[in-house]
Write a structure and sequence with these properties.
single chain, alpha/beta, 9-stranded mixed sheet, 7-stranded parallel sheet, globular, binds NADPH dihydro-nicotinamide-adenine-dinucleotide phosphate
Length: 419
């Protein structure tokens, strides 16, 4: 019996909300609140008569802490699920602290305005100190640890697939498969085809910022940064086939480097087709990925936001996308004094997702873990005051929930390794 406030009603949130409504004995009441209320109303209408969960809607601009506080005070939720954008992480955490409510999200904080001098000064120091230059990092949200601890509240960070399930896979490997994990390769393969020459599978602004940033990996206690897309490997993915994949910086490496004791190397690879890479390079070369506002015909526009308006809405890719995703982690290490390898992954079919929740698999593989993370928090399985990433909780009930609610695991003890 719980009341949940979901902020955001885009591709990922709409999957998470539909999945919450499949577990209506836990998610008894749910309020969908977002910037554009009509999207919340449309989803509530779609769910009407199909769930026992009592669904209501609200308008909120989550950049404004006071608006979120007012909404939380009016709705009185047990948990706030932030499935808006990473830009809103801090304002929503502030509102949760002010109101004494637990918090979760699916991506770590980054600022919308990367030219803000105050943020930039801190960012540049962090680049120098840590050795990676992505705009997003955990430091902003980890800074809330004491406040959440003191308030007796739990904040769960990054509970999508990657970050999210990939960290639960690491916790599972550490708990059941290894005494010592030496290396972790996180492999994110999207074998889906939507038929467009270029489109992004989730929010274009966030997605393009992520993949156009320099790559980096963790090795022997420090970050190694490389030019974007400069390390390429080929891998044969179960049920997808041969794909080219590229080493990217990814947020879970930052927390895993701290939480998996003695790990020597952590890398993240994502598959991309040639058409995607060619378009991305061209857009970057002409300045369309810039977040710096420019003046155009007397109006100020941000190039990447203008590009977003031109690209297909990720939520519209569902009916067109065919094929499967395969996302997981390959480990090397030792157990009982012997060297071993282990691969744990999930395969998800775009069209099956579309049939179930009218969405493609990228939103599905993020929205289902968000629901399962909320389920862990609401049922008391994941509850400790402070700010935590997924691998800091018991992976077993979470992976069982994923098995049950649409993202079952597959395993191999003899995987091909990535060189
Ligand atoms: P979308 O752009 O589809 O949806 C974002 C939603 O947030 C929209 O409903 C938008 O409203 C709303 N929103 C944006 N700004 C505000 C605001 N100021 N106040 C209230 N609502 C706001 O994004 P996705 O669904 O693709 O992604 C959602 C989140 O999931 C992102 O943080 C993304 O980084 C994360 N993600 C995580 C993954 C993982 O594996 N961990 C993978 C994929 C995504 P409006 O309709 O008005 O624009």
């Amino acid at each position: 019996m719980s009341r949940v406030l979901v902020i955001g009603c885009g591709g990922v949130a709409s999957v998470a909300i539909q999945k919450c409504c499949q577990v209506s004995d836990v998610f008894t009441e749910l309020c969908i609140a977002s910037r554009t209320k009509s999207k919340c109303d449309a989803l509530a209408e779609k769910l009407a008569g199909k769930t026992k969960t009592i669904v209501t809607t609200a308008q909120v601009d989550a950049d404004d802490v006071q608006q979120v506080i007012d909404l939380i005070r009016a709705y009185k939720p047990d948990l706030v699920m932030n499935i808006a954008l990473p830009y809103q992480d801090l304002t929503i955490m502030d509102a949760c602290l002010a109101c004494g409510v637990n918090y979760m999200d699916t991506a770590n904080y980054e600022p919308e305005d990367t030219d803000d001098p105050e943020w930039r000064a801190i960012y540049e120091k962090r680049c120098e100190k840590e050795g990676f230059s992505a705009y997003f990092d955990y430091s902003w949200q980890w800074a809330y640890r004491k406040k959440f601890e003191d308030a007796g509240l739990t904040a769960l960070l990054g509970c999508g697939f990657d970050p999210g399930v990939t960290q639960a896979y690491c916790a599972y490997a550490a708990k059941h498969e290894f005494d010592q994990i030496d290396t972790i390769d996180i492999l994110d393969c999207n074998g889906g085809d939507h038929g467009y020459a270029f489109a992004t599978n989730f929010n274009p602004e966030i997605n393009l910022r992520e993949v156009s940033a320099p790559g980096s990996y963790w090795e022997n206690g420090h970050w190694v940064e490389i030019p974007a897309m400069s390390i390429k490997r080929e891998y044969t993915f179960d049920q997808v086939g041969d794909k080219d994949m590229y080493l990217l910086h990814h947020e879970e490496i930052e927390s895993l480097a701290k939480t998996i004791p003695g790990v020597k190397r952590i890398r993240f690879f994502m598959t991309f087709g040639q058409s995607y890479l060619d378009h991305m390079r061209c857009l970057e070369d002409v300045g369309m990925l810039s977040t710096t506002p420019i003046s155009f015909n007397g109006q100020e526009i941000v190039p990447i936001q203008f590009l977003k308006a031109l690209l297909p809405d990720p939520a519209s890719l569902g009916p067109r996308t065919k094929g499967k995703t395969n996302i997981g982690c390959i480990f090397t290490g030792t157990k009982d004094g012997k060297e071993k390898t282990y691969y744990i992954y999930n395969i998800c079919d775009h069209q099956s997702c579309y049939q179930e929740v009218s969405s493609q698999a990228i939103s599905y593989t993020t929205g289902v873990p968000a629901m399962c993370g909320a389920l862990m928090m609401l049922t008391g399985k994941w509850e400790k005051p402070g700010v935590y990433t997924v691998e800091e909780f018991d992976p077993d009930p979470f992976l069982d929930a994923l098995d049950q609610y649409g993202l079952p695991r597959s395993e191999s003890h003899t995987p091909a390794l990535v060189d």
